[in-house]
Design brief:
The complex is a heterodimer.
Chain A (H helix, E strand, L loop, with lengths): L8 H32 L10 H4 L11 H6 L17 H31 L7 H13 L2 H14 L6 H24 L4 H9 L4 H30 L2 H6 L7 H10 L4 H31 L6
Helix pairs in contact in A: 1-12, 4-7, 4-9, 4-11, 5-7, 7-9, 8-9, 9-12
Chain B lengths: L17 H41 L4 H6 L1 H8 L11 H13 L2 H14 L3 H18 L6 H8 L6 H5 L11 H6 L2 E3 L5 E3 L7 H32 L2 H16 L2 H12 L4 H8 L15 H24 L5 H8 L4 H29 L3 H6 L7 H12 L2 H25 L9
Antiparallel strand pairs in B: 1-2
Helix pairs in contact in B: 1-19, 3-4, 10-11, 10-14, 10-16, 11-14, 12-14, 14-16, 15-16, 16-19, 18-19
The chains are: A mainly alpha, B mainly alpha.
Chain lengths: ~300, ~425
């Protein structure tokens, strides 16, 4: 990609402009995510860089972890402020988010992996149609899904219950599992299954001893996608969850809507760290999966 | 030597014809594959497809009010609007008894429905019902039901109230769809424009399209060079830079939206930098959020990865030798790019463009939070009717129209790219 040595001045200008433009776009993509991190350590109850934070030499008075303490439910006098009352909602939301997310992930992963195994078989009838139906929850805009589910779940009194929210999240999360696991199964050597069976292994044993270890990275990636889908989901919980099913996104939504407080930024910082962790894990899994399946690294 | 080909059927060891045996095995395989998919298919059908179907049914359903005023509506249909200014006596009479004897809760629901058609119905009927009950209690039988109604409230002599019945007299009706595009039924049951002050959806539909098109164009302009850079750098560097694209992709939508509020608000980061640089004065801070600008900026950043990733995967397989060959043959770099490189990226551009556009028209969270008054998209109306006005028919109709538009674009996407080519990360 380097500029050839015979480039004309015009080409040089273009080239450096192009690099500069790309740098600006990368900055545009990433800067907002990192701008919130320092502000979450501010002492001020407003979501801004205060003068003290920008002063040189740094003013230790301007920085604090009081909003993080507020987030975990610490109610000391130096933590709360007139605009930011103490509340245990963030911790309650965290517990609920993990509870809903984990159950939804387990169900979605089990159902999705089974379906992906079926879809990858050469004999699958109506593959295109079935795939389209299975993927549809990912495609339909969330607000439409939320409206439909709200009407329907209200009829069978599942709104404002954990069961309702979990079922909805499973439906939203399975497409990600199906897509990831199906992609892992592409290029899966079916002869290994035949070999296992000809050596006398029953289908269950074949699955757990032969197929599963090979596609495990794909299953875990799919599960992580499923988890993050449920964990970040806000539209469904907005309509289908009551205060009992308060999750982190629901609390963040309420926070942005009503009481703009730096505690939101503390939670946002935690979520950015979580996504960095998940992104790294998925990337490592992808490399491992390609190694296992004998595909050369890109 | 002569080769004889046996005309008898090939048999397996069990004596069953081979063809039949193979077909049986094939059937069993198909069934097995299907059984693996079946649990999820059933699950998605019950938890997702049925709710969407329910919504579609609801968008044409007007049966509740028809079960409350069946006779009134029947009589109403016999009214010859050319001949008489007001409905005939029978309409008033049926309404009298249906109000007097009807179930209070059901009437209450119907009143809400009537208010969607014309505001003022609710209070009118409530007052009237009170008077009617008094009359029934006294045991009097009115000589003329029509005059009784008009005596209770002179609005009963206003034909525009009666005309609004046209919107409700059928069990299944398309009225919500017409309402969703600012149309209604006039006195003859024909489609007409809504009152000036009730027209609000067409504007939002147009804005939704406008914003989506702008966001798609911005994403293309910003995403194309970046995808090109990523596709042409050595893998070591491009994998590293890819993090800049994938990290926002993995981060919660709410976090990114919050981040944009922090960046764009009046005393936010960008305004702060501009003031510090002396480009704008302290009281000349720009309003960049809670309006359409905010929606555009935030949505562009949020949807940009969906443009870059398809473009990248297309550009990565375009051989670098093509550009060199073109230039070798005497094409200027610009010509070579325009005539050789760009045409090969069309699949990526269409895939990314369609994906961004389709995601943008269904967007709700970001426009709702950063859009303020004039930056909201159609999703906000759906949420508003779902949660606040409880006008579920209209809510479902808006959703159904949006769904229809999406399906058209996905059909296009499927034609061009193939739905099962969707990749993650």
């Amino acid at each position: 990609m380097a500029l050839p040595s015979y480039a004309t001045p015009v080409q040089r200008t273009y080239y450096y402009f192009y690099l500069f433009f790309c740098a600006v776009v990368f900055f545009f993509l990433i800067a907002p995510l990192f701008a919130i991190i320092p502000i979450s350590f501010s002492v001020s109850p407003f979501m801004v860089f205060t003068e003290g934070m920008l002063a040189w030499p740094p003013d230790p008075e301007a920085w604090s972890i009081r909003w993080y303490r507020n987030m975990i439910g610490d109610c000391s006098a130096d933590v709360v402020s007139s605009t930011v009352p103490c509340s245990t909602k963030w911790m309650k939301g965290t517990v609920n988010s993990f509870y809903i997310g984990i159950i939804a992930t387990v169900i979605a992963t089990a159902l999705g992996t089974l379906a992906a195994l079926g879809l990858s078989r050469p004999h699958m009838p109506y593959k295109g149609l079935i795939m389209a139906i299975l993927i549809s929850p990912m495609i339909v805009p969330l607000i439409i899904t939320a409206a439909g589910m709200f009407f329907f779940y209200a009829r069978i009194s599942l709104v404002y219950t954990f069961t309702g929210v979990i079922l909805a999240h499973v439906a939203l999360a399975t497409p990600f599992v199906v897509i990831t696991v199906t992609a892992t199964l592409v290029g899966f050597d079916m002869n290994m299954v035949k070999a296992a069976q000809s050596l006398g292994a029953k289908p269950m044993r074949t699955f757990f001893k032969v197929i599963m270890p090979l596609i495990l990275p794909g299953i875990i990636s799919g599960a992580l996608f499923a988890f993050i889908t449920s964990f970040d989901e806000v539209v469904i919980v907005m309509f289908m969850a009551s205060i009992d099913q308060l999750t982190i996104p629901k609390q963040m939504w309420a926070g942005i809507r009503q009481e703009i407080s730096p505690v939101i930024l503390c939670m946002a910082t935690c979520l950015v760290l979580l996504s960095i962790f998940l992104l790294t894990t998925v990337e490592l899994l992808r490399r491992r999966s390609e190694k296992l399946r004998g595909i050369k690294a890109r | 030597m002569e080769v004889t080909i046996s005309t008898a059927e090939l048999l397996t060891t069990d004596g069953i014809p081979l063809k039949q045996s193979l077909r049986k095995a094939e059937r069993r395989n198909k069934l097995r594959a299907f059984l693996l998919v079946f649990p999820l298919l059933l699950f998605i059908f019950v938890t997702f497809v049925m709710p969407i179907g329910d919504m579609l049914l609801r968008s044409v359903d007007d049966s509740q009010i028809n079960s409350v005023f069946p006779n009134t509506f029947d009589e109403y249909k016999n009214w010859d609007k050319g001949a008489d200014e007001l409905p005939p006596e029978e309409v008033y009479k049926s309404l009298f008894f249906e109000l007097a004897n009807g179930d209070k809760r059901q009437i209450g629901k119907a009143l809400t429905r009537m208010n969607y058609a014309k505001s003022g119905w609710k209070s009118l009927i409530k007052k009237t019902t009170r008077e009617i009950k008094k009359i029934v209690k006294k045991g009097e039988e009115p000589v003329s039901y029509k005059d009784t109604f008009i005596k209770i409230n002179k609005l009963w002599a206003d034909p525009t109230y009666w005309y609004s019945f046209n919107q409700m007299v059928n069990d299944r009706s398309s009225i919500y769809y017409w309402n969703a595009i600012d149309r209604t039924f006039d006195e003859n049951g024909d489609v007409a424009m809504q009152d000036e002050k009730r027209r609000m959806y067409m504007n939002t539909w147009l804005r939704t399209f406008k914003v989506s098109i702008y966001v798609t164009i911005f994403c293309l302009i910003l995403g194309f060079p970046v995808a090109h850079l990523l596709a042409n750098l050595p893998l070591r560097y491009s994998n590293l830079l890819m993090i800049f694209v994938l990290l926002p992709f993995w981060t919660s939508l709410l976090v990114r939206t919050t981040a944009w509020i922090v960046m764009l608000q009046q005393n936010g980061v960008i305004n702060g930098i501009l003031v510090w640089l002396g480009i704008i004065s302290d009281d000349g801070r720009i309003q960049m959020v809670y309006n359409e600008t905010g929606t555009l900026i935030a949505m562009t950043q949020i949807l940009l990865p969906f443009m870059i990733l398809p473009l990248y995967s297309v550009m990565r397989v375009i051989p670098k030798s093509h550009m060199r060959a073109a230039q070798n043959l005497g094409a200027k770099p610009a010509t070579a790019f325009w005539r050789v490189y760009l045409p090969q990226t069309i699949p990526g551009i269409s895939a990314g463009g369609l994906l961004v556009f389709v995601l943008a028209i269904g967007y709700f969270i970001t426009p709702e939070l950063v859009g303020g008054k004039d930056g909201k998209l159609i999703g906000s109306w759906i949420a508003y009717h779902l949660k606040t006005t409880l006008n579920w028919g209209l809510c479902a109709a808006l959703g159904a129209i949006l769904l229809g538009i999406m399906l058209i674009f996905y059909w296009l996407y499927n034609k061009i790219v193939g739905i099962d080519n969707i990749k993650l990360g």
